[in-house]
């Protein structure tokens, strides 16, 4: 399988990967405009805009957008993250030109009909309400806000209900004008695709666009702190985060191996000690996520009010212990889990298309799989122990808890146990 790259004169980038034997393809536009590109008064507008793209264009009604893709057996969707917005479709190989035309239409020609704005505003307000009714969703929004207070990267992607209630057609159009320039777009396709044909079609659809304003975003500044919200739930939902490297730092691989060994599966330390041996919870895990200039290693668990003290205390003990006795076998297992997850995921054209776009946005090239695997394999047990020691010695952390937390330990107590 070969990755092919091409850049139009206006900066619009195209990346494709042909996957022999596949009769379908995933294709989409990834735009470097997400939650962290919003000003405070715009919080939630990137996500609102993603919703409105499907509500009609100058050429198609909302129903026609759905019908044209589904008439050929495909599907179309979108998502908004803190650093990008994606519009993508999965279709059979013969229908790639149709998918490109529909995606280009919804990205470039939305009409932002006033009635449809009000309908979708109601949908998004319901989505916000649903998140607030889902403790293990909302707790991560709060954790991000506590980690990066008063910053775009710390705000919720959905936005707050009062701001979403005020967005106008002009607000949507202004965000598009500011952030949807061709140099901030990547067309990515994988599966049964023909690179030259896609480049020719992209030139027709996007080649006329003029470059937009220079890109910028506020650098992340991890602060940490705590937020405990009392609510009469069955469980206390607990999330703890430490700042770790951004995705341009090769030590992100060490962070990912560390969190996998700590809480990435049934054989991990937290799962074995806290769930299997002591029965203190049903769900507990650790994970590492990264952005351009920062990252978070996060631990999540849910447990009863009477057991939250034991669970958090043992978690601190396991964080401290990892610095001294993380074994070669644990690190080897975590490396294998990471590589298997990467390679198994790439059997899907949708996962490949997303990976191509993400890597191109980070590096302006697509590193070979062998290069990534080599970086995973290069992480040693000593690296992981040193990283664990750095986590244990960190002065700052972010903590959120939700539920019957009146008698739950506070962040200062957890940090004191970690430092002891």
What percent strand? 15-25%
Work out the number of β strands. 11
* Tally of individual helices: 16
Assembly type of the chains comes to: single chain
Low-confidence stretches: none
Strand count, sense and barrel status of the largest sheet are:
6 strands, mixed
First-to-last CA distance:
52 Å
Which structural class do the helices and strands define?
Answer: alpha+beta
What is the 3D form?
A: globular
Write the layout of secondary structure elements.
Elements (H helix, E strand, L loop, with lengths): L2 E5 L5 E6 L5 E8 L13 H8 L9 H9 L4 E6 L4 E8 L3 H13 L5 H19 L2 H13 L13 H4 L4 H11 L5 E7 L3 H12 L18 E6 L5 E9 L7 H12 L5 H9 L6 E7 L4 E9 L4 H18 L2 H18 L3 H15 L5 H9 L3 H13 L4 E6 L7 H9 L1
Parallel strand pairs: 2-6, 7-11
Antiparallel strand pairs: 1-2, 3-5, 3-6, 4-5, 8-10, 8-11, 9-10
Helix pairs in contact: 1-7, 3-8, 9-12, 9-15, 10-11, 11-15, 11-16
